[in-house]
Design brief:
Structural class: alpha/beta
Helix content: 40-55%
Number of strands: 18
Low-confidence stretches: 494-500
Strand content: 5-15%
Bound molecules: adenosine-5'-triphosphate, magnesium ion
Number of helices: 31
Distance between the termini: 51 Å
Mean pLDDT: 90
Shape: globular
């Protein structure tokens, strides 16, 4: 079979092959990025199906993201002698998809009729309702962080009553958790965590069913095992208790979901949990050229909590990663787009490119340059356009009213930025009719509010007159400092969402606004971009497009040319990790370094790391990760435009 594979262009080295042949019993494959872990997993499955004649109905292949599952399915199609029929019967999927199927199968009435809280805003809505019921003041409470905490408890199988709150805040969240769960059950809703918990409880409580699934899932293989969390690990333990046929593959250096409760200890202690486990280490990197591999090795070596391993590159091509220093986000985007254009002109395909960043908001400038360039691209994200983000919408509402004092659609956003109740919106509308004036003028007639609120509103019509004449960047500054938005932005910042801050968004909005001379031309641009964003999101996934995604989403994938945005202190590593590090906790910083390692190791041929000198209107410092590997990175800025 091995030579048959070779004849089909599928090579495996001896270590990889020995993993493929180990089909029975527990097997641990621990290896660095690009060493062929996923290839081993798929080849092993193919080997079991064709050579060992194991039925596809006895196997599952599990991974963590839908994109990775899709990729794995596609990789299964290259093997000789595997019929479409067999592949169709083979279960390849994410934990969630597989466990949800089980739940639907056994409790169709319950799970079909319940509603999945699929989008972030749905969970957001539910938790805020729960909060109101227990008198949590919405403006002062970090709901995002509370949701993360609740999800962490759920994934650790800790029920509301079992929580041991560490401080006052956690005590409050524990309360909220209880209420959230009650509401969720009463209203027949469930979130993604409930799929896992539901499956865990089902298998735990029903011995017959458990025995059935132990047979059904006689051979379990899991990719990216470093990302497993408690509830997933418990389910897998139950399923493989009898057969012991569990093959796990992973890299502790790529564990980047700690904040969501995944625990690399499971991979590191695998041999203790499965005493007879065979361990195979793969050291060769088959993905990237050796310059990229040496930078990756160098960066990750600083981490202390890791299983030490050094990757050796198979491909000895010298092509050191490029550092480039754009002035700001706009120039960063321009340089990247121009570089991609040049490479496409000399033969590369759009699909060979990936542009990686920390969070989706960072893609704002890039998105706009790509739209201008008419290159094909896709964004991997569930998120909204930058211009639809909470804080941004509020500011845009002011600008819209400056441009058109009767823009009714903008009023609710504006009043909520001033922390006014929604009935004020109706009042304003009524006053504008009874006094025959514009909506903006009507603000000065509003009654029945606290004196300080009335004072703010009375000042508005005049402020809007001033605002209207300003260039957009200055206008945003004025809205922020003079028209009452500062409080709102500050509250957003305090809302504790560690990854995102309202004020960061506002700074980026100013960078965007700077490109325009008038408010109306800026708003025109904004509306165009919102429309384009919706359009691009609704396109079917294209194979022939430049890929834009977060580093988290890129895990397990590879691209010929990779660009990494915003490699500066405060972003990568993120401020909150640096804060923790200064307080003596270096776990978050180690996770940031792993994030950098994942980003670097996606690149096959070329890697370009951007270190903008200004970011969100502030001077930057290059990332410590860049500093640590600077000697190995070529400074020649080949991305000059
Ligand atoms: P990651 O840690 O990023 O998930 P991985 O360890 O899963 O990486 P793969 O994606 O399986 O690595 O392999 C990396 C690349 O190397 C792929 O393009 C794969 O096809 C190729 N590859 C793997 N093994 C070999 C080999 N023995 N000979 C040639 N190419 C190989
Ligand atoms: Mg992989």
């Amino acid at each position: 079979y091995r030579s048959l594979l070779q004849n089909n262009g599928i090579y495996l080295d001896d270590n990889q092959w020995s993993a493929v042949e180990t089909t029975e019993g527990p097997l641990l494959i621990l290896a660095g990025a690009g060493s062929g872990k996923t290839r081993v997993l798929t080849t092993r499955a193919a080997y079991m199906l064709t050579v060992k004649q194991i039925s596809p109905k006895e196997m599952i292949l599990v991974t963590f993201t839908a994109k990775a599952a899709k990729e794995m399915k596609a990789r299964m199609e290259i093997y000789p002698n595997l019929s479409k029929q067999t592949l169709k019967q083979l279960m390849v999927g994410t934990f969630h998809s597989i466990f949800y199927k089980i739940l639907l199968h056994h409790h169709p009435d319950r799970w079909h009729s319940s509603k999945l809280l699929k989008m972030d805003w749905q969970r957001d809505k539910l938790i805020k309702e729960a909060g109101r019921e227990i008198d949590i003041d919405e403006k002062d409470f970090a709901y995002d962080q509370a949701l993360t905490q609740i999800s962490w408890w759920k994934n650790h199988l800790i029920s509301p009553d079992q929580v041991k709150a560490a401080d006052q805040w956690e005590e409050k969240v524990q309360y909220l958790y209880k209420r959230y769960e009650e509401k969720r059950t009463n209203e027949q809703m469930f979130d993604f965590d409930d799929m896992l918990i539901g499956c865990y409880e089902l298998l735990k409580s029903d011995e017959h069913l458990r025995a059935r699934y132990q047979q059904r899932f006689n051979y379990v293989s899991i990719d990216e095992f470093q990302d497993i969390n408690k509830v997933q690990a418990e389910i897998i333990t139950m399923l493989t208790e009898k057969s012991n046929n569990l093959c796990v593959v992973g890299d502790d250096d790529q564990s980047i979901y700690g904040f969501r409760g995944s625990d690399p200890d499971y991979i590191l202690s695998f041999q203790q949990n499965y005493q007879s486990a065979k361990k195979i280490i793969l050291n060769e990197n088959y993905r990237s050229n050796h310059s990229i591999v040496s930078v990756a090795n160098k960066v990750i070596a600083t981490n202390r909590k890791r299983f030490k391993k050094t990757l050796k590159a198979q491909y000895h091509i010298e092509n050191y990663p490029t550092l480039f220093y754009p002035y700001d986000e706009e120039e960063e985007a321009t340089m990247i787009v121009n570089d991609i254009k040049k490479r496409i002109e000399s033969g590369a395909r759009p699909a060979d490119f990936a542009i990686l960043y920390r969070t989706n908001t960072h893609a704002r400038a890039l998105f706009e340059r790509l739209i201008d360039s008419s290159l094909p691209f896709v964004i991997e994200s569930d998120g909204e356009s930058f211009y639809n983000r909470k804080t941004i919408r509020k500011i845009l509402a002011y600008l819209r009213l400056a441009q058109n004092e009767d823009d009714m659609k903008a009023v609710p956003d504006m009043t909520s930025a001033l922390f006014l109740k929604q009935n004020v919106v109706q009042d304003v509308k009524a006053y504008s009719i009874t006094h025959d004036c514009t909506l903006v003028e009507a603000f000065s007639y509003v009654e029945n509010l606290l004196p300080f609120q009335l004072k703010k509103l009375k000042a508005l019509p005049k402020q809007f007159q001033t605002l209207r004449k300003m260039p957009p960047e200055k206008a945003i500054q004025y809205i922020e400092s003079e028209m009452g938005l500062k409080d709102y932005i500050k509250k957003q910042g305090n809302e504790g969402n560690k990854m995102e801050r309202g004020s960061d968004d506002v700074r980026d909005l100013k960078v965007a606004a700077r490109q325009h001379e008038t408010i109306s031309s800026f708003l025109e641009h904004v509306d165009h971009m919102i429309a384009k964003y919706t359009e691009i999101k609704s396109l079917p996934p294209s194979k022939e497009a430049i890929q834009l995604m977060t580093i988290h989403r890129a895990k397990g994938l590879e691209y010929d040319h990779v660009y990494l945005l915003g490699t500066v202190e405060g972003n990568l590593p993120h401020d909150y990790a640096l804060e923790a590090w200064r307080e003596g906790n270096d776990n978050p910083l180690e996770e940031e370094r792993r994030l950098m390692y994942v980003a670097i190791t996606r690149a096959v041929q070329s890697l370009s790391i951007s270190v903008p000198m200004m970011r969100r209107g502030k001077q930057t410092q290059r990332s410590r990760f860049v500093r640590e590997a600077q000697k190995m990175i070529s400074k020649a800025s080949s991305l000059n435009t």
